[in-house]
Amino acid sequence: MQLTLTELRKLQAQLDARIFTLHNVTRESTRLDRCLALCVEIGELANETRCFKYWSVRPSSGKDVLLEELEDSVHFLLSLGIDLDDQNEIIAAEADDRDLSLIFLDFYHAASRLTQQFDLKNYRACFSFVCILADRLGFSENDLIEYYLRKNQKNHQRQDQNY
User: Fold this and answer.
1) Domain of 64: which CATH number?
2) Residue 23 sits in which domain range?
């Protein structure tokens, strides 16, 4: 699975600039908050997959909910990649058939490493988990792009409404 970032990165830069200006903050002053937000979003996606809920028989949330949760991680990762001036146009990852709970735990670990050592290697490792999860959840690159565009528009609307 792969994801082409060129256009998404431009849209994210515009959204970031708007939010930073409206809220009188900077990339630097919000970096830790965005790293924490990434971890929260990873958890929200894991919760919606219900992969770890061995005590429950309820199924995973539907495709729309899962894609929206995955896109929240994409937004924060794109934003963090802008901080790092990432020029990589494509993020890709091989299929991973490990237990989904283990993949989520490894994603958390990668996000923690990124927070501690903020560099391109750790950033790209985090983004590879988006591709792994997208593949495991049955999503295509087109699905990710479509939902990114929807969520980006929704985030602009939220700013219009003083979210």
Assistant:
1) 1.10.4010.10
2) 2-160
- Gap between the Cα atoms of 33 and 158, Å rounded: 19
Q: How far apart (Å, rounded) are the C-alpha atoms in residues 150 and 10?
A: 15
Distance of alpha carbon 121 from its chain centroid, rounded? 16
- Nearest residue to 129 (alpha-carbon basis) of 144, 118, 146: 144
Q: Which among 149, 159, 49 has a CA at the least distance from the CA of 104?
A: 49
Dist CA 11 CA 149 (whole Å): 9
> In the chain, how many domains are there?
1
Q: Which helix (H) or strand (E) holds 3?
A: strand 2-4
Give per-residue pLDDT as tens, 19-40: 999 999 999 999 999 999 999 9
pLDDT score at 163: 75
Quickly tell me which residue has 């903020």 as its tokens. 118
SS3 84: coil
- Residue positions counted in the chain: 163
pLDDT digits (tens, 9 = 90+) for 61-92: 999 999 999 999 999 999 999 999 998 899 88
Burial profile 130-144: b = 16 or more Cβ within 10 angstroms, e = fewer? bbbbbbbbebeeebb
Q: What is the pTM of this model?
A: 0.94
